[in-house]
Design brief:
By secondary structure, the chain is of the alpha/beta class. Helix content is 38%, strand content 20%. The protein has ten helices and twelve strands. A five-stranded mixed β-sheet has the order 3-2-1-4-7. Strand 1 and strand 2 form a beta hairpin. The protein starts with a strand and ends with a helix. The relative contact order is 0.15.
Length: 339
């Protein structure tokens, strides 16, 4: 049995822990709900118990290299500190890595969850043959990461890639980061639920209201199921989701002009409900995408500055994460091996 490490992907809703070998074989995965209201000590306790359960099970199988942990928020990688997280209240300025290392008595590496996902896709997924790419993760919020010359780009203070907090609506919905109108308030799992709740409260969305009041676990998945069944109000929510994601991507493509944009996270299961609108908005709003759209045709007369379409053979690839929502697990598990 090859050596292995543990990857942890903690979002605002789910906590997932996996044992993954150094050659990319997923041995076992555990999924738990994140009980944020119980406090950080409780959440970390559940995480450490799950990690110890897996390491105990595979102890004799190969060398254990340590654990990589991806969490949402602004991370000081060198210090192992959570500096700020809009989706984890009470975790600011918290020494997450040191607390977990003391409990596990093994090496622990802490980083932003989207950067872990990008690292996973670069290692074993869509970006394995790409030098430069960006990753957008759609979960409870929106995460982001940039890969330049095959390495994660952290920026001056480790904060590069905060795509979820790009302003879409200047006077829009308040965000946990303190801003208004951030992208993640319109194009994330929590945004879908918020928009659905507002539609129900308006009294004009009978299909959503019926499911909302009958399903105690009402979620973004519930809205998606209605959308694919033809419910017009659910479809409008995913159209808005796709519109905002298209606006966000248009800006990123214009600024970064990298070869590939990988979209991952749990919400990509709703790809067919939001992607058509996303691509339509992209073609309208991005000068760079108009010139590098893989599906553009000669003489095409739509989109931003369509007269420059096809002036280059290089194309901008926008694709789903090949590792799906497991990208963060693979990236987190790879970090201890690569150090």
């Amino acid at each position: 049995m090859p050596d292995y490490s543990i990857g942890v992907d903690m979002g605002g809703t789910n906590l997932r822990i996996a044992a993954i070998t150094t050659d990319g074989q997923l041995l076992e995965k555990i999924t738990l709900g994140v009980k944020i209201a119980m406090g950080r000590d409780y959440v970390i306790g559940e995480m450490c118990d799950a990690i110890q359960s897996l390491t105990g099970k595979y102890r004799g199988s190969g060398k254990f290299h340590g654990a990589g942990i991806g969490v949402p928020g602004i991370i000081d990688v060198e210090a192992g500190m959570m500096r700020l997280s809009a989706n984890l209240p009470g975790w600011s300025e918290y020494p997450v890595r040191d607390v977990i290392e003391r409990r596990l008595c093994s090496r622990v590496f802490l980083d932003n969850d989207a950067k872990m996902a990008a690292f996973g896709e670069k290692w074993f997924g869509a970006g394995r043959d790409i030098d430069n790419m960006a990753m957008i993760t759609l979960g409870t919020g929106i995460g982001g990461a940039i890969v330049l010359n095959k390495k994660i780009f952290y920026g001056m203070s480790g904060m590069a890639g905060e795509f979820g907090h790009v302003t879409i609506e200047p006077n829009g919905v308040p965000c946990g980061c303190g801003n208004h109108g951030c992208a993640e308030r319109y194009a994330s799992a929590s945004a879908i639920v918020r928009m659905a709740r507002e539609a129900v409260e308006s009294g004009k969305a009978p299909g959503l209201a019926k499911v909302f009041h009958s399903d105690p676990e009402f979620s973004a998945r519930s809205v998606y199921n209605l959308a694919i069944q033809g419910d017009p109000d659910a479809q409008r929510i995913f159209k808005r989701f796709g519109e905002v994601l298209g606006i966000l991507l248009a800006g990123l493509i214009n600024v970064l002009n990298v070869e590939m944009f990988v979209i991952g996270g749990g919400v990509i299961s709703g790809w067919d409900a939001f992607a058509p609108t996303m691509f339509a908005v992209l073609r309208e709003r991005s000068l760079v995408y108009a010139a590098t759209d893989p599906e553009s045709a000669p003489g095409q007369k739509e989109g931003a500055s369509a007269e420059i379409a096809n002036y280059t053979f290089k194309k901008t690839i926008i694709t789903q994460a090949l590792l799906g929502s497991d990208a963060g697990l693979y990236g987190a598990a790879r970090v201890p091996v690569s150090q």
